[in-house]
Every structure is written in structure tokens, then in C-alpha cells.
Amino acid sequence: MGKAVYRASVFLTATGLFWPVLYGNIKALRNIPGNPTIQALVMVLVFGALAYLTYEGEEESKEEEVTASG
Questions:
Q1: How many domains does the chain have?
Q2: Which residues, in sequence order, are CB contacts of 15 under 8 Å at separation 6+?
Q3: The pTM is what?
Q4: Residue 17 lies inside a defined structural domain of this protein
Q5: How many CA atoms lie within 13 A of 8 on its CB side?
Q6: pLDDT tens, residue by residue, 18-70
């Protein structure tokens, strides 16, 4: 479940980056009240923070120790 939340929040963060462009080019989105720049900023902050919090990095067991002798 955490991986699905992470992927969805990354997608929504990316959508937030282009929100003003989408807002200006898609007529149906212009019916949403408010400033699209503020909306984009809120989307990036909220969903970016959610992606950051749900990110599951590399497991320590998967890391291999690299030495000069091989």
C-alpha cells in the first residue's frame, strides 16, 4: 500500500508542477475557482511531502559492501 501511495503522490506532484499550464489550456479546469499558481504551489508542497514521507529507500540487506579485494 505504501508503494501505491508513493507512486500516486509522485504523479500528483508532477501534475502540480504543470498545473498552471494545464489550467490555462483545458477549458473544463478553468471552472475551478482560485489562483492556479497558488493551487500548484499547494499541490507540490502537500503531495511532495507525502511522497517524501512514504518513500521506502533501499533495504540495508540489499546493499553490498564493495572492497578493493573484490
A1: 1
A2: 22, 43
A3: 0.75
A4: yes
A5: 6
A6: 999 999 999 999 999 999 999 999 999 999 999 999 998 765 545 567 777 75
